[in-house]
Amino acid sequence: MTSPRRSRLVAAVCLAAAAALSAGCSKEEGTGAASSDTSQGAQVVQSPSADSSGSGCTLDAYGATKIDLKDAVVGFSQSEKEANPFRIAETRSIKDEAARLGVKKLLTTNAQSQLSKQISDIKDMLAQGAQLLIVAPLNSDGLEPALQAAAAKHVPVITVDRKLNATACKDYVAFLGSDFVEQGKRAADAMIQVTGGKGKVAILLGASGNNVTTDRTKGFVDQLKAKAPGLEIVAQQTGEFARDKGQQVMEQLIQSKPDITAVYAENDEMGLGAVTALKGAGKKPGKDVKIISIDGTRNAVQALADGQYNGVIESNPRFGPLAFATAQKFFGGESIPENVIISDRAYDASNAKDSLSGAY
Predict the structure, then answer these.
(1) What is the pLDDT of residues 241-287, one digit of tens each?
(2) Alpha helices in 34-163 (DSSP H)
(3) Residue 326 and residue 173: Cα distance in Å, rounded?
(4) Regarding beta strands 199-205 and 231-238, do their DSSP bridges make them parallel or antiparallel, or are they unpaired?
(5) Distance between alpha carbon 248 and the CA centroid of its chain, in Å?
(6) Which of 29, 34, 99, 349 is the most buried (most CB within 10 A)?
């Protein structure tokens, strides 16, 4: 049963998201550009929350001081360079919502995929007076020095898009993001549908060291074993969530495993790299080799609409409204669930063209 406090949190998130969307933002052009937020692209918290494990975290339990965001310094630590549409959309969403709310000062950093830099970035923001930290962790482990520095100053930490192997309401307040195991399962279901449950599948794994890769792999593999034993996984190789790496891995697999009939890419960028590799080898992506990936970028959904792709499971990066709504409730004395899980949509051949405006 959903508590009144959690119901109010969900309602506040939806209102904040709607207000942010009405403010609008410009679209960046180019291959790696993320589209502007639209009503189709807003994050929606599962209601009732499907994964709100733990007793919840309050301001008093965390030992933080109540602040008004309009008088506060907020820090946002991005994990990876913004060549990936997911990261572009995520950072923009945080900036847009901070501006909409009138946050006194927003500090932003980018770790450039370096754990040591993310640690130093967070410490630097604390030295600049950050009173709240929103962190997109590079890895699930390794941020302990940064978390300890925040705890020493009683600065709350909210994590987005990747979980930490740490203690909620001690090392961080809450995780905001998707159910990554479920994403993997949904990708498997989409793969079963487009292949008829038979064929040879290659998995382009994400970067190692974070729960996203582990969970998306587990969800997909377990679902195939349970529902489609005729789909044989013949290769699993990391493409590090990057388009160029995905292309390189796919080029190698075309040579070593020429009988591959399907590809599961754990993000769209690797899937699009696979498209390029398949074309270069004279194969027809989406037909000769089925492709399913996760993210929901405009480029992947367009490829789906064009028949060069077969399915995309969304992982919505627009965390600004949810992150700040959660922070406002936390500073207002509300109890925040350990995991605030969002709902993700799915794109297929039947809805891709009409759903492009919701992609990023």
Answers:
(1) 999 999 999 999 999 999 999 999 999 999 999 999 999 999 999 99
(2) 59-62, 85-101, 115-127, 144-152
(3) 10
(4) parallel
(5) 23
(6) 34
pLDDT of residue 40: 53
| pLDDT tops 70 at residue 301 | yes
**What pLDDT digit, counting tens, does each position of 59-99 carry?**
999 999 999 999 999 999 999 988 899 999 999 999 999 99
Longest dimension (CA), the chain: 62
HSE of 248 in the Cβ direction (CA atoms, 13 Å)?
10
Q: What is the DSSP string of 213-241?
A: HHHHHHHHHHHHHHH-TTEEEEEEEE-TT
Q: In what helix (H) or strand (E) does residue 264 lie, and over which residues does it extend?
A: strand 262-265
Query: Residue 85: how many CA atoms within 13 Å on its side-chain side?
Result: 30
3-class secondary-structure state, position 157: strand
Residue 191 in tokens: 């793969």
Give strand pairing partners of 313. 294, 346
CB 308 within 8 A of CB 301: no
Angle, in degrees to the nearest 10, between helices 268-280 and 298-305? 50
- The radius of gyration of the chain's CA atoms, rounded to the nearest angstrom, is 20
Cα(11)–Cα(44) distance, integer angstroms:
10
Task: Give the global pTM.
Answer: 0.87
Whether the per-residue pLDDT at 7 is higher than 90: the answer is no
Candidates 83, 97, 109; CA nearest to 318 is 97
Helix (H) or strand (E) holding 341: strand 339-343
- Supply the angle between the helices 115-127 and 144-152 in degrees, to the nearest 10: 10
Strands 290-295 and 311-314 come out as parallel
